[in-house]
Design goal:
Elements (H helix, E strand, L loop, with lengths): L1 H28 L14 H19 L7 H27 L12 E2 L3 E2 H27 L3 H67 L5 H16 L1
Antiparallel strand pairs: 1-2
Helix pairs in contact: 1-2, 1-5, 2-4, 3-4
């Protein structure tokens, strides 16, 4: 039962993260922008972060540890988001040679993978998850029959696996297409530059031949000699 619950909550938080990022980036850019690594309306990094945070809080509670204060939850969200974002960005870059976010222009960033303002935002989101969203999810899942919860978990898992398979296949092909396009572009540019050099060189040789073969009229030569003589007399 608890596995089914965590899977359903993972999808729920992933969907909320996708909704937040998509709405924010769409309003900021003035055009529709679907965010996330997958084709579907989910951002798994949000699901992983929120579910891991909730699991940690519940584990400490069941172990008999004192309840975490709000500032402890804030710190866990802050440092946890740094670790999660950094290594997720690094892994995606190594696997697919692409970036899904870039904080290079943000203050106090580390290689564009994480930055202080974004980590503060995730820390505040951690408070929202622990004290607002998770209690709501707990009440909803407690009211759902275990068989229904397991069925939902199976459906969501199947959809997520299919989406992940399609996304990885597409991204692998995308990498090859980009390299092929880059190679074709470089070849075309090389041919164009060589053609320009050949045309320019031929034109240059033609101009030199005309200049060398040019002869002044006899009258012009006489006038030039007289002008030179007058200058020498002075």
């Amino acid at each position: 039962m608890w596995i089914s619950r965590y899977l359903v909550e993972f999808i729920f938080f992933s969907f909320l993260g996708w909704t937040w990022e998509t709405v924010f980036c769409t309003l900021k850019g003035g055009k529709w922008e679907s965010r996330g690594f997958l084709f579907g309306p989910v951002c798994p990094i949000y699901g992983v972060g929120a579910t891991a945070g909730v699991g940690l809080v519940e584990l400490l509670r069941e172990s008999g540890c004192p309840a975490l204060s709000w500032w402890q939850v804030l710190l866990i969200g802050f440092f946890g988001s740094i670790v999660l974002e950094y290594f997720t960005s690094w892994a995606l870059e190594k696997l697919f040679h692409a970036y899904w976010w870039d904080y290079s222009r943000m203050p106090l960033n580390i290689k564009g993978r994480v930055c202080f303002p974004a980590s503060c935002g995730f820390a505040l989101a951690g408070l929202l998850v622990v004290y607002v969203l998770e209690p709501f999810c707990a009440r909803v899942t407690a009211a759902v029959e275990p068989a229904v919860m397991e069925l939902l978990a199976l459906i969501f898992t199947a959809l997520l696996a299919a989406d992940l398979t399609l996304t990885v296949s597409a991204l692998s092909g995308f990498d090859k297409k980009v390299l092929s396009f880059d190679k074709a572009f470089n070849e075309r540019m090389t041919d164009a530059v060589e053609s320009i050099y050949q045309t320019t060189g031929a034109l240059h040789k033609q101009v030199l031949r005309r200049v060398k073969g040019f002869r002044y009229p006899k009258r012009s030569q006489e006038l030039m000699q007289k002008l030179i003589s007058r200058i020498k007399q002075r």
